[in-house]
Amino acid sequence: MAQEAHGALHDLLAVRGVTRRDFLKYCGSVAAMLGLSETMAPQIAAALEGAPKLMPALWLNGGSCTGCTESIAQVDTPDVATIVLDYLSFEYFETIMAAAGSWAEKNITKRAEEGGYILIYEGSVMTGQDGNTLFVGGGPENEGAKKGIEILEEAAKNAAAVIAVGSCAVDGGWIYGYPNASEATGVAAWLQHKGITTPVVSMPTCPVNPEWVVAMVVQLLLVADRDPAKFLQVTPMVKVPYTDAITGEKVTLLMPKAIYGQTIHDNCPRRGHFENGEFVTELGSKEEAMGYCLYKVGCKGPQTFTQCPVTRWNRRASWCVESGAPCIGCGGLNWVDNNSPFLKRMSDMRIGDTFVQPGTIGAAVGAVAAAGLVVHGIGMKAAGRIGDGPPMEEMKAYDRKRLAKKGGDK
Amino acid sequence: MAGHPHYREAHPLIFVITHWINLICMVMLAFSGFYIHYPFFDGFMGVARGMHFVAMYVVIINLTFRIVAAFFVKTAQDLDSREVDLDIKNWLPQEKNRHQFWETVKYYLFLRKEGVISAKYGSLQKIAYLATIPLTYLQAYTGFAIYGPSMDLGFFRAGLDLVGGPMNMRVIHYLGMWVFILFTMVHAYLANIYNFAPSKLIFLWKETVPEGKH
After folding, report:
1. Interatomic CA distance for residues A194 and A153, integer angstroms
2. A390 contacts B115? CB cut-off 8 A
3. What is the dihedral of CA B13, B18, B23, B28, to 10 degrees?
């Protein structure tokens, strides 16, 4: 379909050296991700090109490494994802915005009052130390000073929807990992705990894949006609029940099904070698280069629900497993505790402050039982029970005692 | 105790067969399970997984059949008798085992010399056998909960949340196998410690009748 690119987006793309062909190809991959036919690419392009006004958005950072921002913003060449994301009007984006000081903070307050925006939240909700983290405006004695948690609550309350990007925002991520000194938790659990009913879409992985955020933005603009309520209605979601240990809340995490509906194992390019029983035993080996399966070096693909193998990373160049590294399961819940040590098949079990592999426990218990049975067998032999067994009692011990008691009464 | 006769009525042919099926399936499950846990040689994963699934379905069907059969098949209730009654009665509390639990424990800890009066299955033995029923179903549940195509179902999702995710479920499934290995070790040991007459009966369906009995 020879459709002329037009408008502001075309200029933006042209300035950044992105051709119309590149753009349509990109829209095709976004379509595939959304589960749409690739013939929808021109419509996606039209939705992006023709977007009449920018959708206001706030990007807040919680307790995190800012890796998700890095993932999305830190690109060294013009990137289509970046341009498409320009179609959200970020009125607050701490890491990359020009505004600073109270003026920047007012952007949040003003937008929160007016409503009609989406909140993208990156990072964990740190509830420890009475929430005195991510503090803005100096000490509590200053007027207008706010805790990070308060800013989240204020911004989430009036938002049309919250998108929790990255594992930290979903359930606390790596900050939640043992011993979780900052008592970090996820956005969905915290908002429910505070009685805030704004819907939360959870998008784990560490960091979040920018393509997936783009896919959700396109879904919002194209399929849902910029209406967040409709967006939640028309986007198939995986509903993951999750009990948060910090707040005690039972939440249902909503994750877009197109992205979090299948395991990495399901779509893995190394899967054939798994079935064949061809494994990498050592990183850096010939087998790794031959594309053999990374299962034995701790790949967590079989229990990690993301479609990394389809989208891939770094502008669809490659991804962990393809480049020879086992999946460390960053798209799962409580992923650090559940998946470390990363190069072992199973996570360690924690007994007090000691970490043990389940295999060690099983083998130890089995060995102790075997030794116990041998010793018991020697005892049975010594007691002369082997062969025909022991002499049998004439009467149950209980009856004997009762009879003796009766006899004593007489 | 062990010098008693081993009559076919204790284990009718149908239960000799279900026992064989259990044994074969459990060996296949443990072997393929260990392989899936950590492939200790190459070229077997597809077969190991197939074996694991087939053996699992067979063992679940076999167990369910065995439970139903207990209500219809008649077996001996006592060690030295050919007299039969409904098998299920062997699995309910029996008069002969009353007050004998601690005495049995004491016997195996060498705290008493004489053998303990019991029904065909002693109290400890019966508890151990009965415990394998929920354990087998639990293994099937934990197995399906870590199996891609089924773990998405609400029934399994709820369990995954309860234990804290698929990795923990995997660990539970793995340790569950060790419980079966322990059971099998103790079971084989206690069944054959006196002599091999019980094995002759349950595997070969051969009776052992001491002189003077029939």
Report:
1. 8
2. yes
3. 140
Q: Provide ipTM, 2 decimals.
A: 0.91
Residues A131 and A216 both lie in one domain: yes
Please indicate, yes or no, whether residues A310 and A196 belong to a single structural domain of this protein.
no
Closest by CA to A107, choosing from A151, A61, A157, is: A151
If 0-12 CB within 10 Å is exposed, 13-18 middle and 19+ buried, where does residue A137 land? Answer: middle
A residues 211-240 closer than 8 Å to B (CB): 238-240
Cβ-Cβ contacts under 8 Å, A399 against chain B: 99
Kindly give the confidence (pLDDT) of every residue in chain A, 410 residues in length, as a single tens digit, with 9 standing for 90 and above. 334 445 567 777 777 777 877 777 777 777 777 777 777 777 777 777 766 567 788 999 999 999 998 887 755 555 666 666 666 778 888 887 878 888 888 889 999 999 889 999 999 999 998 888 888 887 777 777 889 999 999 999 999 999 999 999 999 999 999 999 999 999 999 999 999 999 999 999 999 988 888 888 878 877 888 788 899 899 999 999 999 999 999 999 999 999 999 999 999 999 999 999 999 999 999 999 999 999 999 999 999 999 999 988 887 889 999 999 999 999 999 999 999 899 999 999 988 889 999 999 999 999 999 999 999 999 999 999 998 888 889 899 999 999 988 765 54
Q: Do A346 and B165 touch (CB under 8 A)?
A: no
- Chain B nearest-CA residue for A397: B103
Touching check for A338 and chain B: CB below 8 Å?
A: yes
- Does a structural domain hold residue A383? yes
Whether residue A309 sits in one domain with residue A185: no
Amino acid code (one letter) for A93: F
Give chain B's domains with CATH numbers.
8-204 (1.20.950.20)
Helix (H, G, I), strand (E, B) or coil at A202: strand
What distance in Å separates residue A404's CA from the closest CA in chain B?
Answer: 16
- Domain of A308, CATH number, reads 4.10.480.10
Name every chain A residue with its beta carbon within 8 A of the beta carbon of B185: 366, 369-370, 373
Structural domain containing residue A280: 264-347
Determine contact: A349 vs chain B, CB below 8 A: yes
Nearest by Cα to B148 from B13, B49, B30: B49
For chain A, the domain total comes to 3
Go through chain B and tell me how many residues it has: 214
A113 shares a domain with A210:
yes
Of A213, A237, A257, the residue that ends a domain is A257
A317 in the same domain as A294: yes
| Rounded (5°) CA angle A334-A292-A266 | 50
Number of Cα atoms under 13 Å in the Cβ half of residue B120: 25
Q: Which chain B residues are closer than 8 Å to A306 by Cβ? A: none
Residues A195 and A298 in one domain: no
> Considering the domain boundaries, does residue A35 fall inside one?
no
Percent of chain B with pLDDT strictly greater than 90: 88
Contact list, A387 vs chain B (CB under 8 Å): 2-3, 194-195
Q: Smallest Cβ distance to B174: which of A238, A332, A358?
A: A358
Task: Work out the minimum CA distance from A370 to partner chain B, whole angstroms.
Answer: 7
Q: Which of A234, A257, A280 is the last residue of a domain?
A: A257
A394 shares its domain with A310:
no
With residue A59 as reference, give the H or E element that holds it.
strand A55-61
Q: Cα distance from B74 to chain A (closest Cα, Å)? A: 27
Shortest Cα distance from A199 to chain B (angstroms)? Answer: 21
